[in-house]
Amino acid sequence: MIITTSRLFSQTRHLLLTPTALSRRKIMDVHIPPKLVVTTHNQYKTPDHLTVDNVRPQPLDQFKDWFEAARTTVAEPEAMTLSTSTPSGVPSARVVLLKLVDDKGFIFFTNYTSRKSKELLENPNAALTFYWKEVSRQIRVVGKVEKVTRQESEEYFQSRPLGSRIGAWASKQSSVVEEGEVQERYAKLEKRFGEDSVPTPEFWGGWRLIPDEVEFWLGKPSRLHDRVQYTRQNAPDSETPSWTIRRLAP
Ligand SMILES: Cc1cc2nc3c(=O)[nH]c(=O)nc-3n(C[C@H](O)[C@H](O)[C@H](O)COP(=O)(O)O)c2cc1C
């Protein structure tokens, strides 16, 4: 059922009336949409300390240290929220998987005709967010993206399981489809490729997010969290990137 805002208003308006006024009105048949109240007050605590003096000079090295540590306890540490935006500033966010961290930045793979890729082509500014509940850690990255080379995309694509390779061909990611349409296309492609190798689609590949800002967050009791932020000081293509490292208020 679709509820228009004016109907929703008329359903909830009686909440503003006094009990006497309420008793005079027939409201028994009115449905009041329940509120969702979330009252948990999680306390974040870790024995670790994060300071500007105990982090590595380069944020990518700090990220690798935290990622290696998270691997032992966090279910899927490579899951990260990628935020993009249209040129006029309308944001959108979704989870993608980190596949590689090289000396320049963070690499993930996707369909180049998807909503995220269209937005990235028009506006290369993007952000990544990791949240690792098990270790009370968050990492935020802001920067610009570039496409990885064709060779890098092919190398990764060919390392994927067969089903994922066919799936990439079957899905025109982010387009509107009929129920079962993608599965049908997948079945046809499965037959067509048969025993042959599955080529890397031209419309599929990797993006590298080159950071300008990286923040490490460690959860502490009473919301007195540790936050350490790196801000890039020189051009992203300089040989030895230099960073300002500062503590931020929680
Ligand atoms: C855990 C998880 C991992 C995902 N990994 C990827 C990924 O690596 N690449 C990708 O294109 N979509 C991935 N997705 C799907 C995206 O969240 C999203 O639905 C899809 O990319 C379409 O987004 P868009 O329409 O904004 O382009 C993943 C989703 C989840 C929940």
Topology:
Blueprint: H1 5-12, H2 19-24, H3 59-71, E1 79-85, E2 91-97, E3 100-101, E4 106-111, H4 115-122, E5 125-132, E6 137-147, H5 150-158, H6 162-170, H7 181-193, E7 204-218, E8 226-232, E9 243-247
Antiparallel strand pairs: 1-2, 1-5, 3-4, 4-7, 5-6, 6-7, 7-8, 8-9
- The N- and C-terminal alpha carbons lie at a distance of 43 Å
Percent strand = 25-35%
Number of helices: 7
Radius of gyration: 24 Å
Low-confidence stretches: 1-15
Number of distinct beta strands = 9
Tell me the number of structural domains: 1
> Looking at the structure, what is the overall shape?
globular
Per CATH, the class reads Mainly Beta
Report the CATH superfamily.
Electron Transport, Fmn-binding Protein, Chain A
Helix percentage: 25-40%
**What class would the helix/strand composition place it in?**
alpha+beta
Oligomer: single chain
Protein name: pyridoxal 5'-phosphate synthase
Domain Pyridoxine 5'-phosphate oxidase dimerisation C-terminal: 204-250
GO molecular function: FMN binding; pyridoxamine phosphate oxidase activity
Cofactor: FMN
Task: State the main characteristics.
250 residues, alpha+beta, Pnp Oxidase, Chain A, 9 strands, binds flavin mononucleotide, flavoprotein, pyridoxamine phosphate oxidase activity
Descriptive notes:
This protein is α+β, with helices and mostly antiparallel strands and 250 residues long. The chain has one domain: Roll (Pnp Oxidase, Chain A). It is built from seven helices and nine strands; from the N terminus they run H-H-H-E-E-E-E-H-E-E-H-H-H-E-E-E. Strands 1, 2, 3, 4, 5, 6, 7, 8 and 9 form a nine-stranded antiparallel β-sheet that branches. The protein is globular. Mean pLDDT is 90; it is low at 1-15. Bound molecules: flavin mononucleotide. Its cofactor is FMN.
